[in-house]
Amino acid sequence: MKKAVLEGEAYAPVGDVYDFFMDFGNYGKYSEYVKDVRVVGNGDLPEWEIEFRWWIVRYTARSKLVDYEENEYIEWQVTKDVDVHGMWRFEEVDENHTHVELDLLYDPKTASKANPLRFISTKRLIRMVRPVLDRHVSKVLRRVAAEVEGEPRDVDYTIRPADPTDNDEFLALMPDDRIKSDKTD
Question: Which of 19, 48, 100, 171 is most buried as measured by Cβ atoms within 10 A of its Cβ?
Fold first, then answer.
């Protein structure tokens, strides 16, 4: 398993940020590549499906809520095809500022189960996806910030790998200036 932490800042109260991420329907509002989000299991630990479409790629991810603590964290895992476990963490910096982290544990080897483009080499696919992914993540984060904070702004984010020397295909998708090389775990 590999580990990486994506982090950024939200200039809104921690409760507003937590509520936004706890509403799974929000996951599809800001991306033109998400075609549908469906809650498929209700209760304290619901499951949801997110249908993605990009270029010739069509994939439906299925995830479930594992645990949560209001205004502190939301833990989830993907339950279909890939081995990914995540936790959104929220830390109140002050009344209108929340530090947000997404801790990811993942097995990159399982990604091939969800990849309909197996005929394209990994290196070539990374070259194709890398510029699109950063632009897309930045656009989604700007849209989320506008919703949560009440006004649009550019959003900066970074990724901190557990082992920056590791050859990680997921991190190869991200621009080098987004990756923090210091090991602060």
Answer: 100
Domain 2-23+65-178 is of which CATH architecture?
2-Layer Sandwich (3.30)
- Domain chopping of the chain, boundaries: 2-23+65-178
Reported pTM: 0.78
Q: Give pLDDT, residue 32.
A: 80
The DSSP-derived string for 19-66 is HHHH-GGGGGTS-TTEEEEEEEE-SSS-EEEEEEEETTEEEEEEEEEE
Calpha distance 140→142 (Å, rounded): 5
CA-derived radius of gyration, the chain? 16
Segments of the chain scoring below 70 in pLDDT: 111-131, 133, 161-185
List % helix, strand, coil for the chain (3-state, nearest 5).
Answer: 30, 40, 30
End-to-end CA distance of the chain: 16
φ/ψ (deg, to 5) at 149: -95, -15
